[in-house]
């Protein structure tokens, strides 16, 4: 494998080899990351990357699209079936572009949008001043209740009625609780606003009924394909038939040119995998694994935002232990545990420092770990945090991680790349 890369570009070969080694060697707990199957990996590395196919299946601006049309139509049909949606657009290069095109499809620029506060779990594209969403729209935000650290429908209603936005965006990047799309969707529509759910983090759970379904309650649903859904890196839009034309037009030519046909083929492969019975078992395991970590943390002096989790992620308040997210992320990395620092609701620290650590179970679940291993992992984290990042503890955890990962091989063929 990679013989040609090794010959043509030894520097890139070496970077790839080291990254493959890192993924195997460390415990991947970044909640938005996952490990794709070998089938998805294979589909990405194909000559489909060579094809220009601006337009949509059967209506392209280039000749020679008959075979990539098959791939894209399969991806569309499978996404619609998987999520029970009227229409799917599988071309967004990313979740951000899926969101951009969807906002353009639903509302005029300059209108009011309302998304979850970035510092309370939201995403940059849901209305941050440093993002296109903040440049093109008048942004407002909702947050979580100070006591419960969860969305309170009454507070949400008050905010929505006060601001009267044109569009409200549900969904989050760091929210450990289930989102009640039905109740919140009704509130949004009651003021005449459009409702969009960005389910990037929870798409896999939604696909198999392990999280409340947004599709019947939203005008548009956007997602990435590479988080719990376990597909290649990319975006996806699902919508009601009435928005199909506007969504397609706003992806291409609205904000993208040629689609990435190798990635679309890989998305199709991942949707096929997601329709198999094993995928439901896998998604359930993701939640069970997060719950196992929650239980382990509860036994220790570790505070979880909102007290725990309903999904694949947990937000730890390491400020409670007198630490910052920044230093904890670095210390855990030295212990071979990969996480990211994250703002927690009402955080007193700056975004580059933070009081929180976000952890998620999808990647380790893909590696085959179950509740016992997840409890061990949570206890490794608690050991490091409770010791206040003591170097001897970090060293001892590192040794235990090095032993644990040996039993859960990742991409075995890739581990054998010659130096
Ligand atoms: N960067 C992603 C995450 O980590 O949640 C969101 O796009």
Note the main attributes of this structure.
15 strands; single chain; 2 domains; Aspartate Aminotransferase, domain 2; four-stranded antiparallel sheet; binds D-serine; 419 residues; Aspartate Aminotransferase, domain 1; 17 helices; alpha/beta
What do you see in this structure?
- This protein is an alpha/beta fold.
- Helix content is 45%, strand content 13%.
- The strands form four sheets. The protein has a seven-stranded mixed β-sheet, with helices on both faces. A four-stranded antiparallel β-sheet has the order 11-12-15-14.
- Strand 11 and strand 12 (313-317) form a beta hairpin.
- The chain is globular.
- D-serine binds at residues 32, 95, 123, 173.
Write the layout of secondary structure elements.
Blueprint (H helix, E strand, L loop, with lengths): L2 H6 L1 H16 L1 E2 L9 H7 L10 E2 L2 E2 L5 H18 L3 E3 L5 H12 L5 E5 L15 H5 L1 E5 L10 H11 L3 E4 L10 H10 L3 E5 L4 H5 L12 E5 L10 E5 L4 H12 L5 H14 L2 H22 L4 E2 L8 E5 L7 H10 L2 E2 L1 E3 L13 E5 L1 H5 L4 H16 L4 H16 L5 H4 L4
Parallel strand pairs: 1-13, 5-6, 5-7, 7-8, 8-9
Antiparallel strand pairs: 2-3, 4-10, 9-10, 11-12, 12-15, 14-15
Bound molecules: D-serine.
D-serine (DSN) binds next to loops.
Low-confidence stretches: none
The oligomeric status of these chains comes to single chain
Strand order of the largest sheet: 4-10-9-8-7-5-6
What is the overall silhouette?
globular
The beta-strand count equals 15
Mean pLDDT: 97
Distance between the termini: 12 Å
User: At the third CATH level, what is the topology name of the largest domain?
Assistant: Aspartate Aminotransferase, domain 2
| Class based on secondary structure composition and strand pairing | alpha/beta
Helical fraction equals 40-55%
Report the sheet with the most strands, covering strand number, pairing sense and barrel closure.
Answer: 7 strands, mixed
CATH architecture of the largest domain: 3-Layer(aba) Sandwich
- Number of structural domains: 2
At the fourth CATH level, what is the homologous superfamily of the largest domain?
Type I PLP-dependent aspartate aminotransferase-like (Major domain)
Taken as a percent bin, the fraction of beta residues is 5-15%
Number of helices: 17
Rg to the nearest angstrom?
22 Å
């Amino acid at each position: 494998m990679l013989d040609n890369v090794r010959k043509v570009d030894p520097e890139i070969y070496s970077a790839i080899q080291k990254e493959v080694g890192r993924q195997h060697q460390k415990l991947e707990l970044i909640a938005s990351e996952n490990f794709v199957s070998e089938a998805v990996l294979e589909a990405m590395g194909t000559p489909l990357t060579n094809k220009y196919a601006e337009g949509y299946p059967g209506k392209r601006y280039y000749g020679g699209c008959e075979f990539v049309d098959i791939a894209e139509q399969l991806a569309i049909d499978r996404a619609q079936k998987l999520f029970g949606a009227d229409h799917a657009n599988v071309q967004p290069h990313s979740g951000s572009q899926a969101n951009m095109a969807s906002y353009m499809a639903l509302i005029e620029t300059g209108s009011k949008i309302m998304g979850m506060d970035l510092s309370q779990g939201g995403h940059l594209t849901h209305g941050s001043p440093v993002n296109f969403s903040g440049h093109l729209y008048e942004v407002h935000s909702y947050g979580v209740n100070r006591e419960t650290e969860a969305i309170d429908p009454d507070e949400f209603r008050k905010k929505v009625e006060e601001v009267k936005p044109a569009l409200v965006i549900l969904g989050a990047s760091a929210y450990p609780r289930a989102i009640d799309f039905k109740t919140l969707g009704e509130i949004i529509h009651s003021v005449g606003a459009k409702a969009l759910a960005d389910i990037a983090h929870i798409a896999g759970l939604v696909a198999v009924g392990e999280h409340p379904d947004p599709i019947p309650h939203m005008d548009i649903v956007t997602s990435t394909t590479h988080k719990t859904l376990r597909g290649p890196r990319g975006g996806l839009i699902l919508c009601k038939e009435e928005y199909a034309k506007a969504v397609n037009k706003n992806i291409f030519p609205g904000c993208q040119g040629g689609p990435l046909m190798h990635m679309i083929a890989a998305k199709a492969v991942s949707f096929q995998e997601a329709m198999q019975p094993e995928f439901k078992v896998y998604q359930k395991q993701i939640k069970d694994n997060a719950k196992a970590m929650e239980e382990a943390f509860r036994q220790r002096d570790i505070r979880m935002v909102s007290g725990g989790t309903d999904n694949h992620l947990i937000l730890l308040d390491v400020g409670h232990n007198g630490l910052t997210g920044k230093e904890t992320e670095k210390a855990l990395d030295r212990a071979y545990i990969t996480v990211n620092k994250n703002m927690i609701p009402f955080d007193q620290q700056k975004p580059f420092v933070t009081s929180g650590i976000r952890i998620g179970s999808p990647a380790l679940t893909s590696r085959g770990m179950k509740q016992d291993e997840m409890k061990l992992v949570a206890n490794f984290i608690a050991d490091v945090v409770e010791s206040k990042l003591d170097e001897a503890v970090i060293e001892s955890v590192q040794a235990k991680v090095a032993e644990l990962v040996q039993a859960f091989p990742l991409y075995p063929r890739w581990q054998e790349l010659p130096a």
